[in-house]
Amino acid sequence: MSPFLMAYLSRLGWNGETGVTLETLQALHLAHNCTIPFENIDVLLPREIHLDDSALEDKLVMARRGGYCFEQNGLFERALRELGFNVQSLLGRVILANPAQMPPRTHRLLLVDLGGERWIADVGFGGQTLTAPIRLLSDVPQQTPHGQYRLLNEGNDWTLQVSHHEHWQSMYQFDLTKPYFTDYVMGNFWSAHWPQSHFRHHLLMSRHLPDGGKLTLTNFSFTHWGNSHVIEKRELPDVEALYDVIQQRFGLGVDSRKHGFSVTELAAIMAAFETHPEAGK
């Protein structure tokens, strides 16, 4: 086993089987969701986000940070490939907010071929991301540890939907064309630098929990969700409380010389968000 795989599995606290099986894929998918938080802090600092293998390993594994789709699924793809899975990245268009025009390809997801059967895996769509792979089948509801999903197919296009408040909500659209690495670089740069990107205007963080719940953070609003109800919801009173929640509840590393950040740096970010009573003062 490579040094990277040993470090990645240690990051997940993983001591299970690593054979190329559906059970391994399902278990690793959930463990990744429950360990490595989705977050966009580097976009806000701002710091450039690099997608090469060494950069992802250094940030998400060694520094115990999180990241967004290009980082999360890039790391997961590498781990699966080194374990022996037949896996490739795809690119999708996020349609969660029902945009008036079809948006660019700014979401990275994974296609896994396992024994001739194709699966969609995705550890990088924040609080509504898949927490288990689902079969590439059209119009078949599929249960995951954190909700029910389905795929719709029309021509070359596939759409992932999540069951939300008793209706199906479209999340993103994709096709099976294999992208080049430069396509991820372009989508990543757009997501981090486009002035209207939501990653530039909100602190976003989420981590799923093994019991079917999840933790979410939008600016100063923290929520602990259960399977079907809110367990805890509160507005954090100040940046110090936010800094503590980021570490204690989301398990985010902040001490790395290269990838960490101080409470002072976090305060500079949060001063721009008017959702908090102290923001902008």
Describe the fold and architecture:
By secondary structure, this protein is an alpha+beta fold. It has a domain at 3-196: Arylamine N-acetyltransferase fold, CATH 3.30.2140. Helices cover 30% and strands 26% of the residues. It has 8 helices and 13 strands. The chain has helices at residues 3-12, 22-35, 41-44, 53-62, 69-83, 181-193, 239-248, 263-270; strands at residues 38-39, 86-94, 107-114, 117-121, 134-135, 142-144, 147-154, 157-164, 167-174, 204-208, 214-218, 221-225, 230-235. An 8-stranded antiparallel β-sheet has the order 5-4-3-2-9-8-7-6. A 5-stranded antiparallel β-sheet has the order 1-10-11-12-13. β7 and β8 form a beta hairpin. α4 (53-62) packs across α5 (69-83). The radius of gyration is 18 Å and the shape is globular. The protein starts with a helix and ends in an 11-residue tail after the last helix. 35% of the residues are buried.
Please give a quick description of this structure:
This protein is α+β, with helices and mostly antiparallel strands. The protein has 8 helices and 13 strands.
Major beta sheet summary: 8 strands, antiparallel
Oligomer: single chain
Distinct helical segment count: 8
Mean pLDDT: 94
What is the C-alpha radius of gyration, as a whole number of Å?
A: 18 Å
The helix/strand class is alpha+beta
GO molecular function, one term: arylamine N-acetyltransferase activity
InterPro entries: Arylamine_N-AcTrfase, Papain-like_cys_pep_sf
EC number: 2.3.1.118
Protein name: N-hydroxyarylamine O-acetyltransferase
